[in-house]
Structures are given as structure tokens and as C-alpha cells.
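Q: A reviewer asked whether we had any structural model of the full assembly, not just the individual parts. We don't, so I'm hoping you can provide one. Inputs are below.
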Amino acid sequence: MSDIINQFLAPALMLFITGFVGAMLKRNLISLFMCVELMLCGAMLALLSFASAYDDMRGGVFTFFILTIAAAEVAVGLAILTRLFSVAKSVSGNNLGNLRD
Amino acid sequence: MADFSYYIFCAMLLGGALVVLLSRGYVNAAMGMLCSMLGAAGLMVLMQCYFLAFVMVSVYAGSVLVLFVFVVMLIGDVKENSSIWRKIGIVGLWVVLGAFVGWVSPMLSQAAAGLSKTTEVVFLSQAKNYGLVLMTEFMLPFQIAGALLLAAMIGVMVVAKNPSRKKARRELV
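A: Here is a predicted structure for the entire assembly that you could use as a starting point for your response.
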């Protein structure tokens, strides 16, 4: 049982950590978004690894919700990003204050 | 055969993620993310979650990634300048954290394997079961997710509206 969970949990954790390192280190917002997506994907895989080991539907349903929310989040985030680019001519996170006015 | 495809999908997943972490241009990062998402979908197939693998490919690889590439097309591909030492540092950090995962993950799964199994056995592979659970046990979260999608849509419209044009129109009047 624990082997089956570990087989899918280890790549999921590794993917989450990769995304986390990127989210900490990246400065521009597009790369940062991509790293957040990787973190979400790692969380989904971890949920599914437990759900498939226990034949429990709830992990699958939560994965479904994460997919929905991630799609909405990307749409809103990229809209803000294009707005920032038209105001500040750059997508660096340091310029986010320019959106105030 | 399943073992072989498992390693292939893991390599796609983590290799793509590493490309996202290290690449200088946005387009390369987007392609790395595509590779990573396809690897994740493959792992979902190996877990026998066929419906979620399909949704993963159609939503992530189909729409989210297209959105990323579209925005990169709008703002232009910018090359970040990062030194080789920074990259070596990132890879070193990644390897150290990977060793940590290799240490902690068996313990986590060992602890989880002791949990009692639920009595009802459902099949994650069938789309019909998702519909049944979403419409009964998870009705409220389902409605909230729908409301959130509507709010996100309206919010994106508000953000995307050009205020300078509005100001110009107001001045004309």
C-alpha cells in the first residue's frame, strides 16, 4: 500500500518543490505564474495519489475544483499582467505599484 | 511496461518543470510547462483517473497554455539575463530538496498507509461518478466554483477595459 502511494507522491512533491523554488526566485510575473501552476499541479497529483490508493472519490473531486480555480486564476492574472504591461512597459513584479493610479 | 511508462512520465514531469525553472525566454518556459502537464496527465492515466487526465490535457494544455502563449505574443518574448552561477545554484538547491523529498515521501506514505479504507468503493476512472458526487455531496462547493468563475469573468472584463479611452470620451462630452 505505502509503495503505491509513494510511487506517485514522490514526483508530486518534487513538482511542488520545483514550483515553490521558482515562485521564490523568479522576478517577472509570467514565470512566476507558471511556477504557481506547477505548484497547483503538484498538489493535484498528491491528492490523486491518495485518492487512487484508497479508491476515494473526494480526492478526485477536489482535483476537479483545483483545475477550475486554476483556469480562473490564470485568466484574471494574465489580464492584470497585460494591464501592467500597458502601464509600466514591463512585467517585472517590482512595477506593480504603478497600477495604483 | 507500466514501469517503463512510469519513468518516462516522471522524466517528462520533472524535466519540464526544470525547464520552466531555468529557461530564459517565456516561450521555452511555456513549452516546458506543456511537457510537464503532459507528464502529469500520463501519471493520472497510470493512476487510472482517465477522466481527470482528459480534463488536464484539454484545460491545461489546451486553454491555460494557449493563454500564456497569447500573452507572450502580446508583450513580446523578453530574455532574462541570469548568470551561469545562478543556474548552478538553482540546480544545486533543487537536488538538495529532491534528496529531502526522497527522505520524507516514504515516511509520509507509510503513515498514510495505516489509515482505514472507506467502505464504499467508487471508481475514479468514470466521468459518471464525478457527476454523481458533484451533484450530491459537493453541491455547495460546485455552486460556489460556478459563482467564482462568473466573478472572474466580470473581473477580467473590468480589468481589460481601457481607462484612457474612457477618460478621452468623458473629455469629449
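A: Points you may want to mention in the reply: Helices of chain B lie at 2-22, 26-46, 50-75, 84-113, 127-136, 139-160, 163-172. The domain at 1-97 of chain B is CATH 1.20.120.1200 (Four Helix Bundle (Hemerythrin (Met), subunit A)).
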